[in-house]
Amino acid sequence: MKGVWGLVLSLFVVGCSANDGLPVASHTMFPSGFKFGAATASYQVEGGWNADGKGMNIWDNITHERPDFIADRTNGDVADDSYRKYKEDVQILKSIGFQMYRFSISWARVLPTGRIDNVNQAGLDYYMNLIDELRANGIEPMVTMYHWDLPQTLQDIGGWLNADIAQIFADYADLLFKTYGDKVKWWVTINEPLSVVTGYSADNFAPALNMAGIGDYVSGHNLLRAHAKAYRLYQQKYSHQRGKVSMAFCGNICQPLTLSPEDVAAADRCYQFSYGWFAHPTFFGDYHPILRQLVDKNSKMEGRNESRLPRFTEEEIADLAGSVDYVGLNYYGPLMAWNGSAGSIPSRDHDAQVRYKFDDSWEVCPSSWMRVVPQGLRLLTNKVKEEYGNPMVIITENGVSDDGTDPLNDLQRISYYERHLAELRRAIYEDGCNVVGHTSWSIMDNFEWRDGYTKKFGMVSVDYGSPSRTRTFKKSAYWFQNYLAMHKLYQ
Ligand SMILES: *[C@@H]1O[C@H](CO)[C@@H](O)[C@H](O)[C@H]1NC(C)=O
Ligand SMILES: *[C@@H]1O[C@H](CO)[C@@H](O)[C@H](O)[C@H]1NC(C)=O
Ligand SMILES: *[C@@H]1O[C@H](CO)[C@@H](O)[C@H](O)[C@H]1NC(C)=O
Fold this sequence. Notes:
Belongs to the glycosyl hydrolase 1 family. Pfam families: Glyco_hydro_1. This protein is globular. By secondary structure, the protein is of the alpha/beta class. The strands form four sheets. An eight-stranded parallel β-barrel has the order 1-2-3-4-5-7-12-13, surrounded by six helices. It has a three-stranded mixed beta sheet with strand order 6-8-9. Strands 10-11 form a two-stranded antiparallel sheet. The chain has one domain: Glycosidases (TIM Barrel, Alpha-Beta Barrel). The chain has 18 helices and 15 strands. It starts with a helix and ends with a helix.
């Protein structure tokens, strides 16, 4: 049995049910130099959906054309109005004590048609102003280039299904490196490629294309090609800027249901078909062998003359191998996995041959897709350490929702962060994981995709009934303020 699954035992089978019995972490502080930040994404906070020359994106489109797509029939037209209120946002980040702000650039705001021949100067200026404001207040920008809001004109040519998009994305990345690279040292090309491809396999996210087992592999392939092109471009043209480039990976980290070899292997497949689908090629140049083997086998059984999982060229493999300078990890909660037949044919779930569920004992929260299990974060960082040779890691998202019924009294969020950060210290000090930062999701409530404004991930509440979108600290914001002040005091 591989080492990390031995850790599963100690974390879950022994530890989870008796958390109080675990040894107290010997280190109560993070290493000096550890960066704390908070995160948002353009469509979820900016508003200004058609302001100053911005083009339309796929979330503008789907929320306008299919209001039922969103739980409360809302959209991101105004959202938190951060397009106008960014200076107040920066003051909030500063007063809590964050050292880093992870935000994303709206592609259609800077390139209304998605293409480099039509630059919207007002859009470029908005992000320059935000970056300058952050730096003037001692906060480092971490910039995501793509957080799901594809320009509609690019969707009209097939979006991530069209192989041309890799070069179109690289041209966009070139503009961002050229414009902001002197000031931005942390880049994320693609946020959650696994979520992006869900827009092509199911009805969960825009563009909601329902091409399970086909559209997801093709779009995922082009996301990886786009990332690799942007990474190599940075190395060739902008290495003097001395920044770091990665993706923010998401996925499933799983506890095996039993310790049978087939369930332990299923838990590994659960990881390889999610986080690993995209992370593995950025280290080794190609898909993990288990994906290649299973998708090829099923494609053949389905009578296809070629695999549903596309192949990289030799050149693409060379570009992809070693194409992250650190690993961005988004983590909310884990799953329990076992071997078995799953999903429709064709689909990723069927290819992975993994069944999964939540354990009944796991703490619930308002978002039905996650459970609160802090040990899962330690398990994930250990898995990444083992798979990829202990790379530098930043936890690029981590957080929990509330449903706003007692808007400022978010005790579950305090408990969530306190326990997840404790597990992160264990990962660092006891397991030797090279984790150097953590950006919470999220600094403030925002448009939570299909859940609209019904699920709130902020440590600062936003009043969507007020035209000025008044921001108010929740208890967790004050908790974080104290937590970070202590960290500063002792580091
Ligand atoms: C919205 O998307 C649909 C489907 O891609 C497309 O047919 C339609 O033209 C789009 N609407 C606008 C205003 O771009
Ligand atoms: C596979 O079949 C499709 C039609 O079903 C065809 O268009 C394609 O060229 C074939 N590919 C190969 C590699 O034979
Ligand atoms: C794993 O599950 C698959 C699908 O149900 C089944 O065919 C296979 O026999 C199982 N493997 C083991 C070792 O139980």
